[in-house]
Design goal:
Blueprint: E1 11-15, H1 31-36, H2 45-56, E2 61-63, H3 65-68, H4 74-81, H5 84-89, E3 93-96, E4 119-124, E5 131-136, H6 141-147, H7 155-163, E6 166-170, E7 175-179, E8 183-185, H8 202-211, H9 227-240, H10 256-266, E9 270-271, E10 274-275, H11 279-282, E11 285-286, E12 313-314, E13 321-323, E14 326-335, E15 338-350, E16 353-360, E17 365-371, E18 383-388, E19 390-391, E20 403-416, E21 419-431, E22 439-450, H12 453-458, E23 461-463, E24 469-471, E25 478-482
Parallel strand pairs: 1-2, 1-3, 3-6, 22-25
Antiparallel strand pairs: 4-5, 6-7, 7-8, 9-10, 11-12, 13-20, 14-15, 15-25, 16-17, 16-20, 17-18, 19-22, 20-21, 21-22, 23-24
Helix pairs in contact: 7-10
Domain Heterokaryon incompatibility: 11-160
Pfam families: HET
InterPro entries: HET (IPR010730)
Length: 483
């Protein structure tokens, strides 16, 4: 299909939730029928309502994914999925069917207009004869009306909202408006109180303006993504992880438009959900409430947050911080036509510890026998420690006698109750096949954190003058290949 942004004519894009059995789709067999024309009254209710809005704004074209992408062609789907960045960013505005669970739910609702406005309470003043007027509304007004609706839990909608310069939301009670700078609604036509839109990408635009570029492809791979820009990316990825997808394989494609936006502006290289210039920072993502994998099919390397389902927390380095691994190589190759979804291999150099699980305690704690240097032998004196594991997903088999490997990832100082506390993050690695501790092939299955200095000293850490815990000199290092 043609890229709608290439014609220069204004168009409206639709953001809506598909039903379980869509009754009208563009298929190879129905292409000729669509080209001959189809009465608007034969379309699903939401599509019909969108035509009413287009007429109201005197806009001739609309973009609806079910009617603009061949739904029985994987090749066309992959090609069109890569254009979502252009489709939504170049639309005059996007209409969001926020209150509908499927394409027949429609946009318009019957309602009592007076019920839309905030309640007004008038109370006498204690100090003057003037009566004070107060408006009562919920502080999370936006979340209750928009984000809590059925549409915005859908993974594909996330980038549709954030890429669109303007969004018109049709909720169950009123119309909302959002652009990159403001958010308004019928109840609050000037601005919604106490609401700061996470759609505000001013940090990204400011960076583009400072570089003197507009969003476009360019090469500047040697520069490091500014921490302020990386922080925006981190927040978006974190929010996206709370969304659901019908197909687990859509994890990369449904976020590809946002990735392309950052890639075009920063010139950085996108690597399976991480960025080349901030790769080591990107490895520090944590799952605290693991869920089962939606599919057993390979989707992403285990070191990428895209390999897990459910919410995760990507962490930012603190003011006093040190990486404890060295990036040797990272290799990714596209999975099919989509360059954002890939098979990847990562090689790190770091201090590796071999561990044998002994007894399970409670709340995720295990008694663990740890061997410094990652090997079992007379030259290494093992020690026992209690560790609370945070696994990346449910269903991981850990049991008595199982051998795992621990890889210190980073060390930082954090203020906890007005006291600086040293924190070291370890990756939990599951060995794949037989391997030498000096050259191990494994997959990531979780993480854990140690803050007790005494325990860290068992692992070969020592305290610096600033309080940061770092690995002692002379520590043995290994090469770790993570799939």
């Amino acid at each position: 299909m043609l890229d709608p942004s290439s014609s220069g004519d204004p168009y409206i894009a639709l953001s809506y939730r598909w039903g379980p059995s869509p009754r009208l789709l563009l298929l190879s067999s129905s292409m000729d029928e669509f080209l001959l024309g189809k009465p608007i009254e034969d379309l699903p209710r939401t599509f019909q309502d969108l035509a009413v809005i287009a007429r109201k704004f005197c806009i001739q074209y609309i973009w609806i994914d079910a009617l603009c992408i061949l739904q029985d062609s994987k090749e066309d789907w992959h090609i069109q999925a890569l254009t979502m960045r252009q489709v939504y960013s170049h639309a005059a505005f996007t209409v969001a069917a926020s209150a509908s669970t499927d394409e027949d739910g429609g946009l318009f609702r019957r309602r009592d207009p007076s019920s839309v406005f905030p309640s007004i309470v008038r109370l006498p003043s204690c100090t003057s004869p003037i009566t004070n007027t107060f408006r009562i509304f919920e502080r999370d007004y936006w979340d209750r009306n928009i984000l809590a609706g059925p549409l915005h839990k859908r993974g594909w909608v996330f980038q549709e909202r954030h890429l669109s310069p303007r969004v018109l939301y049709f909720t169950a009670t009123q119309i909302f408006w959002e652009c990159f700078e403001e958010a308004k609604c019928e109840s609050f036509p000037k601005e919604i109180p106490f609401h700061f839109s996470d759609k505000n990408l001013s940090t990204l635009w400011d960076f583009a303006e400072a570089k003197g570029v507009l969003p476009r492809n360019h090469s500047d791979n040697e520069s490091v993504m500014p921490m302020a820009v990386y922080s925006v990316w981190r927040d978006l990825a974190k929010q996206y992880s709370h969304c659901s997808l019908t197909k687990a394989s859509d994890k990369f494609p449904a976020f590809a438009g946002i990735a392309k936006l950052f890639q075009e502006i920063t010139g950085d290289v996108y690597v399976a959900g991480l960025w080349q210039s901030r790769f080591l920072e990107g490895l520090d993502w944590r799952v605290t409430e693991p869920v089962s994998k939606a599919s057993s099919e390979y989707r992403a390397p285990s070191w990428s947050w895209a390999s897990v389902d459910g919410p995760f927390r990507p962490l930012l380095p603190g003011a006093i911080f040190e990486h404890l691994v060295e990036l040797m190589t990272v290799t990714v190759q596209p999975d099919g036509l989509d360059p954002t979804g890939c098979i990847g291999y990562l090689t790190l150099r770091g201090s590796l510890f071999r561990a044998r699980l002994k007894s399970e305690l409670q709340d995720g704690y295990w008694e663990v026998e740890v061997h410094p240097g990652g090997q079992l032998g007379a030259g290494s004196k093992p020690f026992e420690v209690q560790i609370q594991f945070w696994l990346d997903y449910q269903g991981i088999d850990i049991h008595y006698g199982k051998i795992l490997y621990f890889l210190p990832l980073n060390s930082t100082l954090k203020e906890v109750q007005f006291e600086m506390v040293a924190e070291v993050v370890f990756l939990v690695l599951n060995p794949l096949g037989k391997g030498d501790h000096l050259q191990l092939t494994c997959s990531r299955i979780g993480h854990f954190i140690i803050t007790q200095r005494r325990t860290l000293k068992h692992f070969g850490f020592q305290e610096q003058e600033d309080g940061l815990m770092v690995l002692s000199l002379g520590q043995e290092y290994s090469t770790v290949l993570i799939k």
